[in-house]
Amino acid sequence: MISSLKRRSVAFGAALGLLLSAPALAADTLLVNGRIFTANPAAPGAEAVALRDGTILAVGSRADVEKTLEPGYATEDLGGKMLLPGLIDSHVHAVFAGFTLVAAELPPGDTSVGRLAEFAATSMKSGRGMIGDTLRIGNLTSAYWDDVAALDKVFNAPPFAETPVILAGSDAHTGWANKVLLQRAGVTTDFIAGLGEAERKYFGHAPDFTPNGFSADTGWDKVMGAVPPVSQQTMVEAARSAVKVMNSNGVTAWLDPISNGRPAAPLFDMVPTKDDLGVLPAYKTLSDAGELSAHVTGMVLLNSKSGPEALEVYDALAAKFPKTPDLMVGGIKILADGVIEYPAQTASLSLPYKNLGTPDRKSSEPTSSRHW
To answer: What is each CA distance from 19 to 14, 22, 77, 178, 245, in whole angstroms?
Structure first.
């Protein structure tokens, strides 16, 4: 019996990294000699798949499947690899992740400030770490925040002293900025002293309220607001890199939960407008060029403190980016974030954070009462 599993997708992902996209195959193609997973509990396996112009004609036994093909069809030998319908990722910041592939990201495992300084100097010289006039280095673990004095000593001195520097945490909730960038962002002693306790906890500071460069969530937003926007060219490169990685892992559809936000920009306290297009233009550029080999649904970020009028932002973006076979604006996201991980600890808990285990975590008080 022939199983006619129809798909709009132009691609299958294979579990072993094989990606077979329709444009690379003949008009009629027979896929054989693979472990074919159908996702049909009644017939989970099959011998062959028939394709025509990227659409599945049939899945089943080779003899039955061949009957659906025109004479002269091509045969693709899967070499024993697994073939399965394209996977769907229901929550992935694909372009944000793609940005890390084209930006300056500290290699995993590095925890030395000296090594960080070398990497930053190289990234500044090559331009890979520059966003406008600002040097951005990503993927720092929380171990770096245990000694912000060491960061101060390096990045507020030559060759970085005159350059705005932002060091982004691997948790996406924390980071550090040098004095040039803090001044540009308006994060000063007077600013922190003027905050209430609830707002002050998002900024690292000395007992006299002098900022030490560390910030988390809302504080991180304040600092990131002083970083120039990532160029559209870089955004497209990030989107292209993201699609390549997602497809290579068999993912051919995903939901992007913050499509009107941008990498290296405020998100936690963002109040988007109709003019905040985020990563949607990058997706559309790939779609128009036939490079978006996936189905992407973008969610529109709205501020949790906004009223019903914020839905006009969604309506405007849905109209500006009308639904196509591979891209659509399909919903909204309300961000009410916070994490329990040290050192951010911005989530609200019923009991104070204990912070036991290291000298820097002696306090039994909640984050709001600590100084970084």
So the answer is: 6, 10, 13, 44, 11
The per-residue pLDDT for 49 is: 94
pTM of structure:
0.80
Statement: residue 371 has pLDDT above 50: no
Distances (CA, A) of 103 to 33, 124, 229: 40, 11, 13
Res. 102: pLDDT tops 90: yes
More confidently predicted of 348 and 362: 348
Say whether pLDDT at 2 is over 90: no
Q: Which residues of 118-143 are buried (b: 16+ CB within 10 A; e: fewer)?
A: ebbeebbeeeebbbeebbbbbbbbbe
Per-residue pLDDT, averaged over 328-336, amounts to: 89
Q: How far does the chain reach from its first CA to its final CA, in angstroms?
A: 67
Residue 111: the pLDDT is: 82
CA distance 346 to 340: 6
Measured between alpha carbons, how far is 188 from 213 in angstroms, rounded to an integer? 10
Phi, psi dihedral angles at 193 (to 5 degrees): -60, -30
pLDDT in tens, 266-295: 998 888 999 999 999 999 999 999 999 999
Q: Report pLDDT digits (tens) over 20-42.
A: 333 455 689 999 999 999 888 88
The dihedral region occupied by 357, where left means phi > 0, alpha psi between -120 and 50, and beta the remainder, is left
Q: What is the pLDDT of residue 127?
A: 96
